[in-house]
Write a structure and sequence with these properties.
By secondary structure, this protein is an alpha/beta fold. It has 13 helices and 12 strands. The protein folds into 2 domains: 124 residues, Alpha-Beta Complex (Aspartate Aminotransferase, domain 1); 246 residues, Aspartate Aminotransferase, domain 2, CATH 3.40.640.10. Helix 2 runs parallel beside helix 8, helix 3 runs parallel beside helix 5 and helix 6 runs parallel beside helix 7. The longest helix has 21 residues.
Length: 376
Amino acid sequence: MPVYLDCNATTPIEPAVGEVVRGYLFEEFGNEGSRTHEYGARAKQAVQRARDQVAAVVGVGRDEVLFTSGATEANNLAILGLFEFGLAENKRHVVTTAIEHKAVLEPISALERRGFTVTVVPVEQDGTVSPDAIGAALRPDTVLVSVMAANNETGARQPISEIADTLASHEAFFHTDAAQSFGKDLAVLRNPRIDLLSVSAHKLYGPKGIGALITRRRGYAKPPLTPLMHGGGQERGLRPGTLPVALIAGLGKAAELAIARNEQRRKRCDEIKQKALEAFAPLGPRVHGPAADTQEHVLNIAFPGLDSEALMVALKGEIAVSNGSACTSSTYTPSHVLKAMGFSDDEANEAVRFSWCHLTPDVDWQLLASQIQALR
């Protein structure tokens, strides 16, 4: 098999997480909602333990963790769940950025079709948004500001703490899509001004099909969300349906390990990145994202004159990489992220995203660089 270098699309599952998932699939298989016997009680305990484990990553209480099918559902609930509140309070303005994931941009477009107005803030050439630009976009009727914590294509960390400071005197709810940052960039996501935070397990060495929405209280008040689905009353009535205990337990274990092993994982990922950059340097590449604040496990890079599709096809037996978000890879259009950063279609089509993790085996970057050079 080729070396897997597409961890921003999905990560391999941590072995200890896989063991937990298996145990709750085949042994502790009770329904969390069954209150009359031990199987249900043990399942409920597993879910509550996972809430505590997820909550600990971002410094909230267990009742502020709402399990979803993943970050896409969490984003939709955070954004569309404020529709009725916005109508009732006559606050129908949303602020977001041009580089958000489609799982944020499309729900916001749905609000726009329902009569809300939207300000899409442009980004700097390095792919980061200016906190001042966010502040300038605020209006008295702004109900929501949604800015991702780190970009899924470039790895560019966004100035979440500074944006939170900008919002200190404004009542707008602050949402961040933290699919790529949860469990990796710990301190920034504990900022109490972040009201809503989306989580995905399969970006954190956990199983697919499970995530969470953090609904942080302001004092005693929770964000005034209304459900998108109805029936059953689970998850405080905001997300009905039988809870997938095995997946939830897996997410909980992944969250626990993310705290315990954060530094060693970051160190391993940075070591890989430095070797890649050193090997690619003689090729004169163009690196996308801020040099000083891009996540350690991501390298979005272009080799001028070499189309990314040609590179991926030529090297598919050696490496597994992508040229953008897995969620939009079937469209074959230039990356909206790189376009927002000011690159032309041709330049955007040269970009390749390498992403790895602490489980990635050693890569012969020098050999890979020579193979890329031979394609030019």
